[in-house]
């Protein structure tokens, strides 16, 4: 009926209307009712003809919503220039063997007016059907054609509404993907660059809505849309792909396309400046170079969004898609998605790193360390997954699990005086009383609160949240220790430390690990430990990895130490077995008897002065 090329184009036009299956159909039903009343027939159909079937957007007097193509009268109607008129199908060689005709009370009369797009492709028909033979007059044929035109007008109006943004009037995301598909059909299509314009981020949008209202936001988006459309005349087509983002495509061979985008963003920023710097939009762009294939098309907008996020993090006008960064983001998403499963299986588990007294060598406590063995990603470092948990609001759930697992494990130990330290995130102090959660957990597992130590990192987050200090005071009142972890870097400051109800300071491992080879680190460590001891804090050194490091820390008067040289993190069973073998594992006598030159590098020996014997913390 059609040559192969024209039929392919026609089918693509039909497939573009697939959305009509679920669209509101009252107007189409109304046309069917009007046709049934005017022509006095029991059946009226609005059909769309595909390769292997025809389906009905609207129907009256017909039970099925589609039929195979070999039963379709409309497949013949779309080949006609005007109305296909079949007075008696039982006498027509094309249809006399059709099951719809040979069935009892089968079709006798059929008349179908083709539905044609503006480009002239017939996509289906408006047809009227009767069980009795019937003859149409010329006037009736014209009426049927007029009704078919009404159907096409409704379809085109729905296409216009569905494929254009109601605020800007620009083609929308549906139209973008349709045009992208059409480009991919062109032979020898060159590489292109997708440019995604993020007019304003979600936080900025919320601020602007509060200050200016929704109407002002729409006005800003309309201004941006008009400016984009004007700037791209003769270059590309702008699309409004969601409520705050636009996109367009450029040839990858275009000279200085990066400069073009940079200048475009600069103009958009200038035109959207307002009196309030807080509510001025900050448009950014993300760019992706792509080939025309189905695989690249499917993920294109997501990649462009990642490029925008890269620009935002770098505080630049635009960012280029980076596959390595994208893989990292997707890995982080996978971790966040799999947390619940990890907590209910054996993927997440605890290890315990012993801590020893430098006064007598006893193992007196352990730090509970969270580990994650992901089934696909393997062993994942806490340095990677903890920030993911914090960003995605999952850290509290995991902290509750850690508390319960730690206390249930402690309940099995023979050493009922051994303490355990648990690391808390700043997010653990938000929207909950972490002290009360700890108290109830201790009661539930019959663990004395004094056996718990809470580790936090000192920072501005403590002073910015008025509830943190109060919760820490509550934790201390329970008898638990509070340790400032990683002291000596970042925000660490003794001037502010008195505001925090802590009684332990843990020297940052970056200072301790390189202690024997760094005079600077020795001066810092000795000063911190001396001042902390004078102020009544108990001190702990993390990251002890060799004998010289241990000797120096002991010489400076540190109270406790932990690190790989003393013991690696242990499983619950290993920790219990270690405790049964010996309560005094640290070679204290070796430290006391070794000459200073063996404990401390000779070049640095003269700079070291022995500290007073460590005193127990007064707090």
Automatic annotation (TrEMBL):
A Pfam family of this chain: EAL
Domain spans labelled EAL: 332-583
Record's protein name: EAL domain-containing protein
């Amino acid at each position: 009926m059609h040559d192969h090329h024209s039929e392919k184009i026609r089918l693509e036009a039909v497939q573009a209307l697939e959305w009509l299956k679920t669209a509101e159909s009252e107007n189409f039903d109304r046309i069917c009712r009007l046709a049934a009343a005017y022509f006095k027939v029991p059946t009226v159909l609005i059909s769309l003809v595909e390769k292997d079937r025809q389906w009905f957007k609207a129907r009256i007097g017909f039970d099925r919503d589609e039929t195979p193509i070999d039963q379709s009268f409309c497949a013949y109607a779309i080949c006609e220039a005007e109305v296909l008129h079949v007075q008696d199908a039982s006498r027509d060689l094309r249809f006399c063997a059709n099951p719809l005709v040979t069935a009892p009370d089968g079709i006798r009369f059929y008349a179908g007016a083709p539905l044609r797009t503006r480009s002239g492709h017939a996509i289906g028909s408006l047809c009227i059907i009767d069980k009795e033979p019937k003859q149409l007059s010329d006037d009736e044929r014209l009426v049927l054609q007029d009704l078919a035109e009404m159907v096409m007008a409704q379809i085109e109006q729905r296409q216009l509404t569905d494929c254009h943004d109601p605020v800007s009037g620009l083609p929308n995301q549906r139209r973008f993907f349709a045009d992208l598909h059409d480009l991919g059909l062109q032979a020898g299509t060159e590489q292109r660059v997708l440019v995604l314009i993020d007019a304003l981020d979600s936080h900025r949008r919320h601020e602007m809505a509060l200050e200016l209202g929704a109407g002002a936001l729409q006005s800003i988006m309309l201004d941006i849309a008009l400016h984009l459309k004007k700037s791209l005349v003769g270059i590309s087509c702008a699309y409004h792909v969601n409520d705050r983002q636009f996109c367009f495509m450029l040839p990858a061979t275009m000279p200085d396309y990066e400069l073009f985008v940079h200048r475009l963003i600069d103009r958009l920023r200038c035109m959207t400046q307002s009196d309030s710097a807080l509510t001025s939009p900050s448009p950014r762009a993300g760019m992706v170079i792509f080939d025309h294939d189905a695989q690249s098309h499917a993920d294109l907008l997501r990649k462009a969004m990642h490029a925008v996020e890269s620009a935002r993090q770098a505080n630049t006008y635009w960012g280029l898609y980076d596959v390595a960064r994208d893989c990292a983001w997707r890995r982080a998403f996978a971790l966040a998605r799999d947390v619940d499963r990890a907590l209910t299986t054996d993927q997440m588990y605890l290890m315990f790193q012993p801590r020893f007294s430098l006064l007598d060598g006893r193992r007196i406590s352990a730090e509970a360390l969270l580990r994650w063995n992901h089934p696909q990603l393997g062993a994942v470092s806490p340095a990677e997954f903890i920030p993911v948990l914090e960003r995605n609001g999952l850290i509290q759930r995991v902290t509750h699990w850690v508390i319960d697992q730690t206390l249930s494990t402690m309940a099995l130990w023979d050493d009922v005086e051994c303490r355990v330290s648990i690391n808390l995130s700043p997010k653990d102090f938000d929207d909950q009383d972490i002290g009360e959660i700890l108290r109830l957990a201790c009661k539930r597992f019959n663990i004395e609160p004094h056996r718990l130590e809470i580790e936090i990192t000192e920072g501005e987050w403590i002073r910015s949240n008025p509830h943190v200090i109060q919760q820490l005071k509550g934790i201390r009142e329970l008898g638990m220790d509070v340790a400032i972890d990683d002291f000596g870097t970042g925000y660490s400051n003794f001037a502010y430390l008195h505001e925090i109800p802590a009684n332990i300071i843990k020297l940052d491992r970056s200072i301790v690990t390189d202690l024997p080879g760094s005079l600077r680190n020795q001066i810092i460590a000795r000063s911190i430990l001396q001042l902390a001891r004078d102020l009544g804090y108990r001190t702990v050194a993390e990251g002890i990895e060799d004998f010289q490091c241990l000797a120096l820390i002991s010489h400076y008067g540190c109270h406790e130490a932990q690190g790989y040289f003393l013991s690696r993190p242990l499983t619950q069973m290993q920790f219990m077995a270690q405790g049964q073998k010996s309560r005094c594992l640290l070679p204290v006598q070796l430290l006391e008897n070794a000459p200073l030159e063996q404990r401390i590098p000779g070049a640095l020996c003269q700079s070291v002065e022995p500290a007073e014997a460590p005193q127990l913390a007064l707090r």
